[in-house]
Specification:
The complex is a heterodimer of chains A (108) and B (135). By secondary structure, chain A is mainly α. Helices cover 86% and strands 0% of the residues of chain A. Chain A has 4 helices and no strands. In chain A, helix 1 packs antiparallel against helix 4. The longest helix of chain A is centred in the middle third of the chain and has 27 residues. Chain B is mostly helical and 135 residues long. Chain B is 87% helix and 0% strand. The chains are: A mainly alpha (108), B mainly alpha (135). Chains A and B meet through helix 2 and helix 3 of A and helix 3 and helix 4 of B.
């Protein structure tokens, strides 16, 4: 199984977790969540493909995962300007799940 | 009479602010869109180039940084823009970090440049979303 498939599974798991966590509130955060996960997916797939094919060092790869936190912060700020109040909470949950899953994947 | 004149000035001021805000905002959206495109184009050129030495791309790095500085300057004087300003500052910090990596190591690989471009696109996207929704 390639890392590419795993990244897709990780993001699907995050979506499922958020859906069950936020249950009734999920419809109001659905669009923000899916936009965030879709944007992350394309970026992470490109990054992981280049890492797996030996084009990136693990140091560079992990530094970009670290930069995901700043990207998330910028997205949270934009959601705040857009008046989406739950965005901070859900995005933090999503990022924690993402970082945990990637670290698990790299350690396996 | 004085009250009527004051009311007239107050009405004019309120009207002007309603007219000026959207145009200032759409001007910023245009500026951010153009700077984002400029960044993407520069990175795509670097990726495609056979020689990816920093010195070849130094001028374009300076032009983009200058555009980001200009956006930060304009946002700093806008009302209710503290969150937008933080996004623009995050963008600038990472743009400089990636530029400095190129400057220090002199040559970056296509994959490294692709990763940097993807991250910067995400920062630009956040900034554009925020600029578009700022009233």
């Amino acid at each position: 199984m390639s890392l590419q498939i795993n990244i897709e599974e990780i993001l699907q798991d995050i979506k499922n977790t958020l859906e069950s966590l936020y249950n009734e509130k999920y419809p109001e955060i659905k669009e923000v969540t899916e936009t965030y996960l879709q944007a992350s997916k394309e970026r992470l797939l490109s990054l992981s493909n280049d890492y797996l094919s030996g084009q990136l060092t693990s140091e560079f790869f992990l530094a970009r995962i670290e930069d995901e936190k700043a990207i998330l912060e910028s997205q949270l700020l934009s959601y705040k300007v857009m008046g989406i109040s739950l965005a901070k909470e859900i995005s933090e949950v999503a990022l924690n799940l993402l970082v945990q899953s990637i670290q698990k994947l790299l350690n396996s | 009479m004085k009250r009527a004149i004051l009311f007239l000035f107050a009405s004019m001021f309120v009207s002007c602010s309603f007219i000026l805000s959207p145009s200032a905002s759409s001007e910023m959206v245009k500026k951010v869109t153009e700077a984002a495109q400029m960044t993407d184009q520069a990175y795509l050129q670097m990726i495609e180039s056979e020689d990816r030495s920093y010195s070849i791309f130094e001028d374009i790095y300076i032009s983009i940084e200058s555009e980001i500085n200009s956006i930060i300057l304009l946002d700093a004087v806008r009302e209710n823009s503290s969150d937008i300003l933080k996004i623009a500052t995050l963008l600038k910090e990472h743009f400089i970090k990636y530029k400095d990596d190129h400057k220090t190591r002199q040559v970056l690989s296509a994959a490294e440049l692709r990763a940097y471009n993807n991250d910067l696109k995400a920062f630009w996207q956040s900034l554009l979303q925020a600029e578009k929704s700022l009233k």
